[in-house]
TrEMBL record:
The chain crosses the membrane at residues 54-76, 186-211, 223-244, 250-272, 311-336, 356-379. InterPro entries: MetI-like (IPR000515), MetI-like_sf (IPR035906), OppC_N (IPR025966). SUPFAM superfamilies: MetI-like. Residues 184-380 form the ABC transmembrane type-1 domain. Pfam families: BPD_transp_1, OppC_N. Keywords: Membrane, Transmembrane, Transmembrane helix, Transport. The keyword Transmembrane helix applies. Belongs to the binding-protein-dependent transport system permease family. This is ABC transporter permease. It is a multi-pass membrane protein. It is found in: Cell membrane. It comes from Rhizobium puerariae.
Length: 391
């Protein structure tokens, strides 16, 4: 049996690794997978949200939609109020790539209009001899970017002596696609402004009722019951009708936003109240009180994060609800009015059955409404699940 000790007088050999010390080296998996044991709460939420593919796609759609409203004037082929009197109620034009078997780039065929003397309806047919190539990053209709900077640069423009109506035109010859893009700026932001009002009222009033209880809870609950007993549609109509017709479009826009926020806080306040009634009895709340924490700090720092998943779900349901509310009021003629353009205002063009039968493309503004509402719902499902990563 040989000894592993060095002979007498020989130096003791040892090795010191120059790598930095890693206190969590034993926690790393050998196969390179992510370790959840040492991950922060935000990392856990992000990893779980990323597994919800539909929520990720919905988030990308919403992100692109909200980014697009910053550059509407550049993205729209025409100005909001540009009229093409020779193309009233023109149908959508199909973008093509090949002409007579040869690649011609993105282009549209010109229109030929004839008048049906029996029905007095304008009939448009494609003129295959008129090839109108699309131009990109081009000069077109003049506009004021956000009402401040004058410009005429567009992403897509028709040919010099042609037109391009991707979704057709309305009764005044205005491009429906351009007006949908402009309307997105109002319809998408009205939900964000409304939810600020709704959440401020819901969290503050519901938080006071749930944390203090007693007389405060009794009064808040009776007020909520009274407001929830009123039918929502007649209440919307009544509040929207009291706004004078001579108010500026901006004031009407802010008024509709405030009304939608006032009508939607009761459900959130009741949910916040019920959650706080349960959480205020936890030991960590008592510990915070003994350490001298104030009431508002306990509510905001310790109690509200305890039901953050519910708040996220409420937000993703409230925003599309407000978009639908604005669309409904504007469609009925009691919400936003021209010259403000929103998806609800655009849908007023399709209120009669004759228009729907003859010009169905005027219903295209309902498509972004459906897409945005579905995207918010799917995103809410993913965020709600991700907010509780330990379940």
């Amino acid at each position: 049996m040989t000894s592993s000790l060095p002979p007498d007088g020989a130096p003791l050999l040892h090795y010191v690794s120059p790598a930095p010390f890693d206190p969590y080296a034993d926690d790393h998996a050998k196969d390179g997978k992510k370790v959840f044991k040492r991950a922060s709460q935000f990392q856990l939420m992000f990893w779980r949200f990323r597994r919800h593919r539909l929520a990720v796609v919905s988030g990308i759609v919403l992100l692109l939609a909200y980014i697009s409203i910053l550059f509407v004037e550049f993205l729209a082929p025409y100005n909001l109020h540009t009229r093409n009197m020779d193309n009233i109620y023109a149908p959508p034009q199909l973008v093509r790539l090949f002409h007579e078997g040869k690649f011609a780039g993105p282009f549209v065929y010109g229109h030929q209009m004839t008048l049906d003397m029996k029905t007095l309806r304008r009939v448009y047919t494609d003129d295959t001899s008129s090839v109108q190539p699309l131009r990109f990053f081009c000069r077109g209709d003049a506009y004021r970017f956000w009402g401040l900077v004058e410009s005429d640069l567009h992403l897509v423009c028709p040919s010099q002596k042609g037109n391009v109506f991707l979704l057709g035109t309305d009764r005044l010859g205005r491009d429906v696609f351009s007006r949908i893009l402009y309307g997105a700026r109002i319809s998408l932001t009205i939900g964000l402004l409304g939810i600020i009002t709704s959440f401020m009222l819901g969290i503050v009033i519901g938080g006071l009722a749930g944390y203090y209880g007693g007389v405060v809870d009794l009064v808040v609950q009776r007020v909520i019951e009274v407001l929830q007993s009123i039918p929502s549609i007649p209440l919307w109509l009544a509040l929207a009708a009291i706004m004078p017709a001579d108010w500026s479009p901006l004031v009407i826009y802010l008024g509709i936003t405030f009304i939608l926020g006032l009508l939607d806080w009761t459900g959130l306040a009741r949910a916040v109240r019920s959650k706080l009634l349960a959480l205020r009895e936890e030991d960590y709340v008592l510990a915070a009180q003994l350490m001298g924490a104030g009431h508002w700090r306990i509510i905001g720092r310790h109690l509200v994060p305890g039901f953050m998943s519910h708040l996220i779900a409420s937000a993703t349901l409230t925003i599309p609800g407000m978009i639908l509310g604005e669309t409904t009021l504007s469609f009925l003629g009691l919400g936003l009015r021209p010259p403000i353009t929103s998806w609800g205002v655009l849908l007023t063009e399709a209120r009669t059955i004759n228009v729907l039968a003859l010009y169905p493309w005027l219903l295209f503004p309902v498509v972004p409404v459906i897409v945005i509402i579905l995207a918010f719902n799917f995103l809410g499902d993913g965020l709600r699940d991700a907010a509780d990563p330990y379940q």
